């Protein structure tokens, strides 16, 4: 079974990993316009989400922007 560590928690993917960061965000129902993503310690530009491949065992940090004050 393939896994990713997302925000410090291990998530398992029985049907295989999403191929890209953009597909992962879609699967998690996260709007890519509201998130900053870091993959294995490197910030990924939003324009590169669809071109950033994922591999089992990678660490992903997702920080969401929430409006309000």
Describe this structure in words.
With 69 residues, the protein is mainly β. A five-stranded mixed sheet has the order 2-1-5-3-4, with no helix packed on it. The mean pLDDT is 94. It has one domain: Roll (Ubiquitin-like (UB roll)), CATH 3.10.20.30. It has one helix and five strands, in the order ββαβββ. It has one helix at 21-27, and strands at residues 2-6, 9-13, 35-39, 42-44, 59-64.
Descriptive labels:
69 residues, single chain, 35% strand, five-stranded mixed beta sheet, 10% helix, mainly beta, Ubiquitin-like (UB roll)
Describe the structure in brief.
The chain has 69 residues and is mainly beta.
User: The CATH topology, please?
Assistant: Ubiquitin-like (UB roll)
- Please, what is the average pLDDT? 94
Q: Could you say which structural class the secondary elements and strand pairing correspond to?
A: mainly beta
Instruction: Give the helix tally.
Output: 1
Ordered list of secondary-structure elements with their pairings:
Layout: E1 2-6, E2 9-13, H1 21-27, E3 35-39, E4 42-44, E5 59-64
């Amino acid at each position: 079974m393939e896994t990713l560590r997302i925000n410090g928690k291990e998530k398992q993917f029985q049907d295989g990993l999403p191929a890209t960061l953009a597909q992962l965000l879609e699967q998690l129902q996260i709007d890519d316009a509201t998130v900053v993503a870091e993959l294995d310690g490197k910030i990924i530009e939003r324009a590169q989400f669809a071109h950033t491949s994922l591999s089992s065992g990678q660490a992903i940090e997702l920080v969401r922007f929430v409006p309000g004050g």
